[in-house]
Write a structure and sequence with these properties.
The complex is a heterodimer of chains A (about 350) and B (about 300).
Chain A: H1 2-7, E1 14-25, E2 34-45, E3 49-53, H2 60-67, E4 75-80, E5 83-84, H3 89-98, E6 99-102, H4 106-109, H5 116-126, H6 132-142, H7 161-173, E7 179-183, H8 191-208, E8 211-216, H9 219-225, E9 228-233, E10 236-242, H10 243-248, H11 253-260, H12 294-297, H13 300-303, H14 307-312, E11 325-326
Parallel strand pairs in A: 3-8, 3-9, 6-7, 7-8
Antiparallel strand pairs in A: 1-2, 1-4, 4-5, 9-10, 10-11
Helix pairs in contact in A: 5-6, 5-7, 6-7
Chain B: H1 2-8, H2 15-35, H3 38-55, H4 57-60, H5 95-130, H6 134-148, H7 151-162, H8 167-177, H9 179-194, H10 197-205, H11 209-245, H12 256-265, H13 268-271, H14 274-308
Classes of the chains: A alpha/beta (about 350), B mainly alpha (about 300).
Bound molecules: adenosine-5'-diphosphate, iron/sulfur cluster and magnesium ion.
Adenosine-5'-diphosphate (ADP) binds next to β2 and α2 of chain A.
């Protein structure tokens, strides 16, 4: 863990940068605009594996899609190697050759009428890359589909869930990307194959020097592969630090609650979050977590004299870089983590 | 599961041989499903009879038998007898001969116009479902507009505008007016395909709009299009009859529609010449029924695959 943490402790050379990103959706049936992302800063360093965690609905998919240019930001920007994303057709196509996406549902991600070969060859073919079949063979074996030729003419419905996800990953690898954004890559798979797919991602990082942004709502899975954990709540990043820092010393009450319900964390008493699931069309004032915050509810915030701030004082948005940091009035600003 | 094992065993076969085997297998599965539906089989049998008649028309009856300058010697409106099994029309032509040649005309008009309708409906349907912006809503407006205009007046106006009435004009008029239903169905199916993650994946892999539509949307709406087009043929054949009956058909084209029109014109109904009116009427009904039965069966056999595969 420690050696891995060292790899990406700080985004020394950021490949992907997200700068104060705001993405809104028109509210459903007359409701106001929903701010799915409400000022997100994020930097992913080269060769780093960053896990993006948070409850469902907090904006993880929206952030992943925005990074791929599939969502246009209302404000803020996404940068790749320092260059702001261009949204023209040609610019996006060139960009997406280098930054690929793996979606949550491998079954839905594959066209039922395409064979494995066609599904993996799609990228190289569209980009007119040389040696299509060689690329397909290589990508499939890198993704752990061996021997590749044997799977060429299979259809998705003839594969297991894990194999399908490997095919989807192979489809991305066939383009030789530098970055892969994976949106809940294992959440729809059987528990038994989740580990295999995560191990595959880890192995690909080692072998291909890939940079990975892995979205998951499962902290227990995230810490197995990630160098850095980024915790999101209701469209904002609320805690960001190396896996070690966040696991050993979670600072935000929300992170603590998430960690407490991970089965592997035996020693902590589990904190069950109450209150209605957040709605990004109605973001609470002050700290957006206060209606559900255990520290606020238990009087800890009151004792620290910040309860009023929790209710009404807008928190500063966390920056993209820096040490272990959390957006909470209980946590002193800057790098200094509060000891427990 | 059983299918998976059949694929892995023939390892020595070339990929093409395997692909061929797969295609044969899936065709077999389709045939099995189709022939399991009695309605579809009945439709297919009826249609086969008519197609056979239409194809062999020149062998059965000399084309000259339709030429009124050659039939002046025959008695007009003669009831069925040994020489003319279905009697004669007002020009003394054998009704059976006209009927068999009429099958040709009606089927050709039906199929050709449905083909136009299929191409237009599929293009416009996929386009209006795929493009979310101005182009998409423009196409949708166009479809809605064609849908709400009453069919007959539209056909009448179009037929009048196009003037010169030949087989081509009729095919064009019917083809250009029957696509909106197909387009609406295709649009709905396109929207459902567009919502699937593999379209997003295609976009991220670099597919252009055209590639997304042809590689991913089209194959997935095709079964629906085929079933729907079969039903369109039935409607088009009926419409051709209507058109001819309204006197807007091609008077020199011996289709079932023109037969009905001429029969009425010759007072077949009032003089009790049932042998002139009934045969084309029954033929239209049978062919329309056949296409409807086949179309409905195709819908049943092809559509569940859209969901399950
Ligand atoms: N296309 C959309 N239209 C409207 N609202 C959306 C859309 N996509 C996401 N949202 C809203 O944005 C919020 C964040 O969603 P999402 O990014 O999918 O969260 P997560 O992936 O973390 O579960 C949710 O409240 C969701 O309802
Ligand atoms: S700022 Fe207050 S309400 Fe928000 S997380 Fe910290 S203690 Fe809880
Ligand atoms: Mg999601």
């Amino acid at each position: 863990m420690s050696e891995r943490a060292a790899v990406g402790s700080v985004a020394s050379e950021p490949v992907i940068e997200v700068d104060d990103l705001v993405v809104t959706f028109r509210g459903r049936r007359g409701g106001g605009t929903a701010r799915a992302l409400d000022g997100v800063n994020l930097a992913v360093g080269r060769g780093e594996i960053v896990a993006l965690v948070g409850e469902s609905g907090c904006g993880k998919t929206t952030l992943a899609r925005s990074i791929l240019g599939l969502e246009r930001p209302a404000s803020g920007e996404v940068r790749f190697q320092g260059e702001p994303l261009g949204y023209g057709g040609r610019a996006l196509k060139a960009y997406r050759r280098r930054v690929q996406l793996v979606l949550q549902d491998p079954t839905g991600s594959l066209n039922p009428r395409q064979t494995v070969y066609e599904a993996v060859a799609e990228g190289p073919r569209v980009h007119r890359m040389a040696d299509e079949s060689g690329r397909v063979v290589k990508a499939l074996s890198q993704a752990g589909i061996r021997p590749p030729e044997r799977f060429f003419l299979r259809y998705p419905h003839e594969l297991s869930g894990g194999q399908r996800q490997r095919v989807v990953i192979a489809g991305a690898l066939a383009l030789n990307p530098e970055v892969i954004v994976a949106d809940e890559p294992v959440s729809s798979l059987d528990a038994s194959v989740r580990g295999e797919i995560l191990a595959l991602l880890l192995q690909l990082r080692e072998e291909l020097e890939l940079t990975l942004l892995v979205v998951t709502h499962d902290l227990g899975l995230a810490w197995n592969i990630a160098d850095r954990l980024v915790v999101m709540y209701l469209g904002r990043v609320v805690e960001d630090g190396t896996t070690e820092q966040v696991l050993n010393n979670p600072q935000h009450p929300y992170t603590k609650a998430l960690l407490s319900v991970v089965p592997e964390m035996e020693q902590v008493e589990s904190i069950v979050l109450t209150g209605e699931t957040p709605d990004c069309a109605r973001i609470p004032t002050g700290c957006r977590f206060h209606p559900r915050c255990p520290a606020y509810a238990s009087g800890e915030a009151e004792a620290a004299g910040i309860a009023a701030d929790c209710r009404s004082r807008e928190l500063p948005i966390l920056g993209a870089t820096g040490g272990h940091r959390a957006a909470c009035w209980l946590v002193p600003a800057g790098d200094a983590p509060i000891p427990r | 599961m059983r299918r998976a094992s059949t694929v892995t065993t023939p390892r020595k076969l070339s990929p093409y041989a395997i692909a061929r085997t797969r295609r044969k297998k899936s065709l077999q599965r389709f045939a099995q499903a189709f022939f399991g539906q009695p309605a579809g089989v009945i439709g297919l049998v009826i249609l086969s009879v008519f197609v056979l008649l239409a194809v062999s028309a020149p062998l059965l009856f000399d084309r000259e038998m339709l030429d009124i300058t050659k039939t002046l010697g025959n008695e007009s409106l003669e009831p069925p007898n040994g020489d003319f099994w279905l009697g004669t029309d007002e020009n003394g032509r054998s009704i059976l001969a006209v009927l068999v040649w009429g099958a040709r005309a009606s089927l050709v008009v039906g199929l050709a116009a449905s083909l136009i309708s299929m191409v237009l409906g599929t293009l416009i349907g996929i386009g209006s479902g795929h493009y979310t912006g101005l182009a998409g809503s423009a196409l949708q407006r166009l479809t809605d507009w064609f849908l709400v205009i009453p069919f007959i007046p539209l056909v009448v106006v179009l037929a009048a505008v196009l003037g010169q009435r030949g087989l081509g004009t009729i095919v064009l008029v019917l083809g250009v007016t029957s696509w909106p239903g197909t387009a609406r169905l295709v649009r709905a199916q396109t929207l459902s395909v567009e919502g699937r993650p593999y379209l997003e994946r295609a976009k991220v892999l670099g597919d252009s709009d055209w590639q997304q539509m042809t590689k991913h949307v089209l194959p997935n709406v095709m079964p629906l299009v085929i079933a729907n087009t079969t039903l369109t043929v039935a409607i088009v054949i009926l419409s051709e009859t209507t058109l001819a009956f309204l006197g807007l058909g091609d008077p020199f084209l011996d289709s079932w529609g023109t037969m009905l029109d001429k029969a009425t014109g010759a007072g077949a109904a009032s003089t009790g010449a049932w042998w002139y009116l009934l045969p084309p009427g029954i033929c239209v009904i049978l062919v329309v029924l056949a296409f409807t039965l086949i179309g409905r069966t195709l819908e049943v056999v092809l559509n569940p695959r859209l969901g399950s595969e």
